[in-house]
Amino acid sequence: MTKPLVSVDALEVHYPLGRSLLGTPPVLKALSGITLDIPQGSFFGLVGESGSGKTTLGRAILKAAPISVGSIGFEDGEVSLDIGTMSKAAEKDFRKRAQLIFQDPYAALSPRMTVRDIIAEPLEVMGLTKNREETDARVREIAAKCRLNLEHLRRFPHAFSGGQRQRISIARALVSGPKFVVADESVAALDVSIQADILNLLKSLQSELDLTFLFISHDLSVVAHVCDTVAVMYLGTIVETAPSRELFRMPRHPYTRALLSAIPSLDPDAKPSNLKLEGDIPSPADPPKGCRFHTRCPFAQAKCRTDVPVLKDAGDGAQVACHYWQASLF
Amino acid sequence: MSALISVKNLGVKFRTDEGLITAIDDVSFDIAPGQVLGLVGESGSGKSVTAKALMQLNGDNTVYGDESRITLNIPEEPPLEVLSLKREKDMRAIRGGSISMIFQEPMASFAPAITVGKQMVEQLQIHTSLSKREARDLSIEMLTRVGISEPASRFDQYVFEFSGGMRQRAMIAMALSTKPKLLIADEPTTALDVTIQAQVIDLMKDLVGEFGMGILFITHDLGVIAQTADEVAVMYLGKLVEKGPVRDVIRNPAHPYTRGLLKALPQLDDLDAPLVPVAGDIPSPLDRPPGCVFHTRCDQSMLGICDKMVPAVSTISDGHEASCFALEDQS
Predict the structure, then answer these.
(1) Lesser CB count within 10 Å: N end or C end of chain B?
(2) Region A67-94: what's the mean pLDDT?
(3) pTM of the model as a whole
(4) Contact between chains at B166 and A280 (C-beta distance less than 8 A)
(5) Residue B107 falls within a domain, yes or no?
């Protein structure tokens, strides 16, 4: 077992909901009780519906969301940081070690900067290079790795298609030499024909630059293809984690199974699944008691309405938070 | 059975500062009542422009080709040439009446400061002779039909109070309340989660059965097409490169572009299969490649043929057609 690069322990992220005159103000618990290890060198997938807290978790690890309870540790062999309590100096160092690739390559790039300046900006802001020659050399090196045409560095982003823009965003994220990258829905805005290209690029960059990815996506078939471990989130909690292959061979949590069966099959004669979810994800401001999934779960029983299930080992490296996952398989 | 809507040799160009841009080139298809035609393609392939042409919703700088004909055959009414309607007033009877459209982003399609119910009643009063009371009852009935709980109280709410899935349902309810003969669904499930997408697809299938309307279903997701459409048309850079019954096209794709799209799709039943992207990017409509529009990205492109001449339509099997020189050689 490789050492975890990121270890999240009992993390909760709270956002205040207005003020109250008496007592404590109400809070929205965007994440509750998240415990998770991201091993070094892994391609870790995080899936769930919108509102499940995927992005918040990614942001918390990058110290871009408030860590209300619990802790997040980051250990890459050179430094060991407690992300919640680290000093300003440590945070500065952390910024070059952990980076984010955004979803929308159209919104993420400034239209008034050349591609070269966009990619060079992190180097200049973090003061990682001494002079312009060194910056240029570094920009060209990373641009080549991201399969960007070096002649394009002088152009502006509007001249590029979605796939090329996403390669520019990736180059910008990787230019500071991070060890850990959060890719938040990085292929969701792309066409399938381009999506495969970007996924292949991320995979090859991972082995070439020894990166660890946290790959956030709502698309299970994409996650199945690129990730080695997957965590499934629902309403701010993790309901199941497993090695990818195991998760797709035998999804254990009823929610994971419902998600998988909702993917439209390419076979026009495929039998419709009998495991269909009704309704929407409940509001995180007022989550259901007990198991948060019980309002939509076809297998819910009395215990699910009162007792919160915890993540337990379920064989073959999988962990599942469900009282009745074994019974629900039949 | 005659087609509900018949599109023949549709050509659309846009006048811009850079000159005339070809958006759609010689596109023909028919949709019969009760039939779902899926239109797939990448962004920039012209799917939405085609859909908007059916209601003349493209901007003022649009130039339709001389050969272009869009014929709407409503049963028991004389055939209507959509493109010969010049006045906005004449189009109004079609828009939202005989043809309804649902859009990708339901939040942007409802007015934010008017209640959902009021918007539903308003369009019913434009297109039908119902009284306000009857329009209200019908709207609430439609909201019930699409599975919105407590429709009477939802009726008086604003769109921001609805969740994403509910907004899309409300939009479907609104589009169907005038009993359109043709429904244009432009990426109706793209902004939704898979679980909600599955609900909306089921709902649309039920409603086709019930109302017997024709649907033009636009999406970039071949899985969604496989689950909803009877016929599929694949579009690339303003051209229909392949069309046919959904089973034939997905199981036996004839055009290299269709094959490329299918290969680029991550499959859940074979996790070891490599993801093969379609090489390169879709060219800008400003410099459309000569000859076959796909030749710049095609791995079977033949020098001197594909970059010079436009391929003719080859018939693969009954109703299954594709335009590619590789197919012409075989026949």
Answers:
(1) C
(2) 92
(3) 0.86
(4) yes
(5) no
